[in-house]
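As a point of orientation, let us examine one representative protein, giving the amino acid sequence and backbone structure tokens.
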Amino acid sequence: MNPTALQKQFPWARLHSLDYPVRLDALGAVLEEIHATHSHVRDEAHGEQGGQLIGDSDDMQQVRRLVEQVAPSMATVLIHGESGTGKEVVAHQIHELSARKGPFVAVNCGAIPEHLLESELFGHERGAFTGAVAARRGRFELANGGTFFLDEIGDMPAVMQVKLLRVLEERCIERVGGTKTIPVDVRVVAATHRDLGERIEQGKFREDLYYRLSVFPIEISPLRSRPDDVEPLANEFIRRLQSDATIGLELTPEAMQVLEEYSWPGNVRELANLIERLVVIRPNGVVAAKDLPWPLVERADAGSGLPEVLAASIAATGGDSGVTLPAEGIDLKAYLSKIERQMIDEALSESDGVVQHAAELLGIGRTTLVEKIRRYKIKH
């Protein structure tokens, strides 16, 4: 390979061709090129690890249908969901199923300081500000021909919202310090965990930008509301980690039940971190319920509502549960789950299927009751 081709493929090779003593502007130009190239490669590599949409729940099947429906178009997509639900995985799946040949480039709008965000998105010209010793392409240019994922769009500063709206409408950008209009062929997918309607009322998010972004909205439910997805997700994370032949992890049915009953405040990300932790603790073993971290078991029990259901059952029989403990023992969790389901069935019947009324009869929140109805697959 000749020196010119080598430097084009590996910009860092140009460091060896600099004249000494090194001029600041010449060194800066090489470093900027290395940074831009590295960013591009990093984003493509990140995209290859985007993963598939895992889950058997009705909610996840609906998300898959929406992704397949919107992917072939150029429609701007707004993904909403709690932190850790897998919004970037959905965005990457949209890119993979589209006809876009360019890269998948992602940027977190909340992780970049406000004074650097414009340069990061649109690039800058040489001399645009102190330290800009060379021109640099922004993420929009790097994503040309591909998909640009704007994560945490709800945290974007107001001044940048105006400039983003112009890009979405005109499909062109201007670098910081530049006057040249640069057309970009980019499919935009945005995501947020915030309530943008509330942000609009607070004057923190532009209403016109919201409508421009939400051409095709996709909602991702939190993991706690789709317990059917816990097992396939856990198995997928184990499968990925078991690519190393030294790892062999298995969860007992009891352990899996605990995972399904847990509220997962950190959503899918928390589950992935737990599996990784279990692999470290028991790399070649079977994980029983007792082997799970105690906060997980404690919070699963606390969030199940079983103590209240049991108390109601005892109160209904005048303080006597009418149950004697068999000599061989009893599966208490299964027994309590049976009581809980019976109570929910009776409450729904008493309230003619009105979930809010049934929740009031049970003394629990409507959202909690909806999750239990899904878990037990109760028809109402």
In short: Confidence is low (pLDDT under 50) at residues 1-14, 35-50, 303-321.
